[in-house]
Every structure is written in C-alpha cells, then in structure tokens.
Amino acid sequence: MEQHYKLFRVRELADNDQDFIATLAEAFLEEVPVDAERLKKAVEEKDYYNAYQAAHKMKPTIDLFELGVLDTLIEVQDWGKFEKADVDVTAQLNIVIAAVSNTVAEIKSDFNL
What we know:
Order of helices and strands: HHHHH
Low-confidence stretches: none
Radius of gyration: 14 Å
Largest sheet: none
Shape: elongated
Structural class: mainly alpha
Strand content: under 5%
Number of strands: 0
C-alpha cells in the first residue's frame, strides 16, 4: 500500500473522510490514465498543444497523490508549451507513464476497485 503514491495530502484534503478519499481515488482512476494516454499520443505525434494541455491537466492530481514525477511531468508540459522541437522528452514521458501505470494498479488493489 502506498508504494507508488502517497495519501497524506489526499487525507488532509478530505479531512480523513474515508468515503471522500475513495471518491478521489476513483476520480484518479477515471481521469489520469485517459490524460496520460492523450499525453503519450501527443508526444509521439509532436502535437505540442495537446501535450501541454494533457500534462497541465494532470499536474494537480499527480501532485495531490504524490507520485514523485511532478518535475518530470512539468518538463514534458514545458516541451509542449514552448514547442521544443529540438528536445526529445521520450524518457521523461516514459517515467510519467510508468508512474501512472504503477499507481493505477496499486490504487485498484488498495481500494478494491
């Protein structure tokens, strides 16, 4: 439990309300994998605008659940924002995607979802 993510800030936000914590976990599962897939596709297609949009949307949730990849996600976001055609962010993208994937599996297990 809580190897790939941390619930400290989630618990704090939810004032330790277990139902609300579970709701936030469900919201993570519904939104973040979709956004991560959008981000991955955008980077692969050098679609800077959608890469920026997807990364920007993911930031608060990645930060709240403390996946430990916020700075890496910001690098990918900035790649899109500033259209850094001469920079390859594939390694950073893979770190973010792996963190999301690991967290999704762990949240499903931890919350029996």
